[in-house]
Specification:
By secondary structure, the protein is mainly α. Among the domains are: about 35 residues; about 35 residues, no CATH class. Helices cover about 55% and strands about 5% of the residues. The chain is built from three helices and two strands; from the N terminus they run αββαα. The chain has a two-stranded antiparallel ribbon. Helix 2 crosses helix 3. The protein is flat and about 100 Å long. The two termini are about 60 Å apart.
């Protein structure tokens, strides 16, 4: 459990510095992810014989799919946009209504 007495609120200057460092790190990570994605796309477009690496990967995935591999089925299903929704939609036809009755008691 944290000792509340040792906690302090950073000054605006300290908060600005923390935010600046976080922004730099975030930008660095975004650049790394972009570079990795671009390298992967180039690798998928590379040719091996008369087929691209992507074509070979699709063929391998379809072979697994055809023998009944459940993970391959899920991958194909999700890729073609047929993934079931993970969200639950709760609808309500009309707003919630509450009826309040005032009861007067007559004690005599």
């Amino acid at each position: 459990m944290a000792n509340i007495e040792n906690l302090r609120i950073p000054t605006s200057e300290e908060a600005r510095e923390i935010g600046r460092k976080g922004g730099k790190k975030s930008g660095e990570i975004r650049r790394q992810r972009k570079a990795f994605k671009e390298a992967l796309i180039l690798a998928l477009e590379a040719k091996k014989g008369d087929k691209t690496i992507q074509d070979i990967g699709i063929e391998a995935l379809m072979q697994r799919y055809m023998i009944g591999d459940l993970e391959a089925f899920k991958t194909v299903r999700d890729t073609i946009g047929e993934k079931p929704t993970d969200k639950v939609d709760i609808g309500q036809e009309k707003p919630f209504e509450v009826e309040i009755k005032v009861v007067k008691w007559n004690f005599q």
